[in-house]
Design a protein that fits this description.
CATH topology of one domain: Rossmann fold
CATH class of one domain: Alpha Beta
Order of helices and strands: HHHEEHEHEEE
Shape: globular
CATH superfamily of one domain: ABC-type transport auxiliary lipoprotein component
Largest sheet: 6 strands, mixed
Oligomer: single chain
Helix content: 25-40%
Structural class: alpha/beta
Distance between the termini: 58 Å
Radius of gyration: 28 Å
Number of strands: 6
Length: about 200
Amino acid sequence: MRVIRFAAVATMGIFLLANCGHSRPRTTVQRTSADAQIDLSGEWNDTDANQVSKVMMRDCLSRPWHSQFQTKNGKKPVVKLYPIRNRSSDHIQTKFFTKQVEMELINSGVVRVVAALDETSHARYERVDQSRHASDKTAKQQQAETGSDFILNGWVVSQNDAAGGTEVKAFVTTMELVNVETQEKVWLKVHRIKKVIQRAASEW
């Protein structure tokens, strides 16, 4: 009986030691400012999206195209933003980037912004639904959308170079504004971000 009891205690001790030896590393979380610039991998991140959108729209809205349009037509120009495309080999959350650009446009107060190309289906479905179920007094009319005067296009490409334990990542963002009626390009800008990444030999 003592032998059986000793064996059970020994087995339990081995089990506890094994679990202690394979315990998970402790995880710590530290909050930081949402505006803090943090680069962990060198990949495109939220800091890049924020900075590029501000630089691009500051330049775009400082040019004379919108004031010239308003002087000629007596109204603010209407801009439709097409989704910014990722033409790089890196993963880029383009939806977030597109929304940052759109926010800068809207908050400027000098242009009007209509729903982006990939966002129009919801309102159109809602109008169809209202035509069937809502009262004539409150139902929204078809063919009453605000047409855009300009479309804003953009894309991001990357160029990477590496030697030894050093890698250079360059993200090149191009944006252009096109007059819908005349196809005239009234604004274009290229903005570059370059990062130098030092990696330990074991990471390559």
